[in-house]
From TrEMBL, chains A, B, C, D:
Pfam families: MazG-like (PF12643). This is Nucleotide pyrophosphohydrolase. One of its GO terms (biological process) is nucleoside triphosphate catabolic process. It comes from the Bacteria. It comes from Pelagicoccus enzymogenes. GO terms for molecular function: nucleoside triphosphate diphosphatase activity. The lineage of its organism: Bacteria, Pseudomonadati, Verrucomicrobiota, Opitutia, Puniceicoccales. Gene3D superfamilies: MazG-like.
Length: 121, 121, 121, 121
């Protein structure tokens, strides 16, 4: 089976992450609290390479293949924990995203929000 | 079209998130740096309801339907920013997860990692 | 007694924070884990007003007195949790900072580190 | 001069942190935005050793002197960035803490807040 965004439904990713934890008997550690803490830790690592850089130099990081791989790994870690959080909470992620984006669309109507950096969720 | 984890490939979610930002002309704010900061902010909000609670009471939160919806919304926000980060960085998320999980499998072989809370990625 | 950075030793701040928690019988919730999570949550709130802004507009935020007060409050929250973490862990914060800065000075000698945005602690 | 919480006013710590950055010509990177991101990164590192542990085992970490030193270093890093944020923003930290704690006292009166884990700032 091939893993690409085009061919992989979210449920496949969820199942793979669940199996990985199950095989290692890690579910005992995977409370929602602990997973949210681990996810936040990975999110902080994703920020780290950018923290002292301005816009242009941020983009340049992705041109360097070793740095790109490190950044892709951090992003993967974030999403892996999000998937396992969904697994452990019995959450359908696509459904949750669908509902949240509908709320966001009401909160930020195109004509008012256009081009504005005002606080948004 | 129906949005569920079973039926939705990652690419559909990515495209929806990209379209939302494009329609609002928000791409100018969506540098990788800014998106990583926003993602970390949402990750912190996901932790927040759990921060003073121990294991049992964490689980109970999801029984309360208003709290469940709030938590699902926070998780959705985290993943929305992860998807947009992938969009802006030209990252195939399923591929990145596939590669990262292969690395994790080497780092935490089942027989050694089983049941241990030792540091893991 | 007056509270200003010039006149207030760290120990006074620590004691005030400890007393606040003690009076409310909150020490039961103040494990090191929970305090580190709460601190990270406040740190995320401190980032939030800056997340979509570039350099110049960041500075302008502090000119607006309501926004300045909100930002000062978030910074205070971060430090309050750091002080309570020190209280609960029996950590002398000034001593810890003294030791860490000595390590940093070895890691980033002036002549090599000058003007460079390379990764630093 | 001796550095301990009892003898060190906040202003001394601030000045030391400011001098360190000034000597390395790092002020150019120390925008409020970048410092808030760096602070959040250090806060995440402070959480990390606790993320999979429950209460008792969290406390045990501080008995191990190498782990204690690592945790004290992370706490120091958090506070160092908070002090530099205060420096760059022209914020009197003790004053900000004094004001924030007065607000907290109004928000969480002793008789109502006692022993309750309900959301608090």
């Amino acid at each position: 089976m091939s893993w690409t965004d085009k061919e992989t439904p979210v449920s496949e990713l969820k199942e793979r992450v669940a199996a990985f934890a199950r095989e290692r008997d890690w579910e005992q550690f995977h409370t929602l609290k602990n997973l949210s803490v681990a996810l936040a830790g990975e999110a902080a690592e994703l920020m780290e390479p950018f923290q002292w850089l301005e816009g242009d130099r941020c983009k340049a990081l992705l041109q360097d293949s070793a740095k790109r791989e490190a950044i892709e790994d951090e992003l993967a870690d974030v999403v892996i924990y999000a998937l396992q959080f969904a697994n452990r909470g019995g959450i359908d992620l696509a459904l949750a995203i669908d509902r949240k984006m509908a709320k966001n669309a009401l909160k930020y109507p195109v004509d008012l929000a256009k081009g504005s950096a005002e606080k948004r969720g």
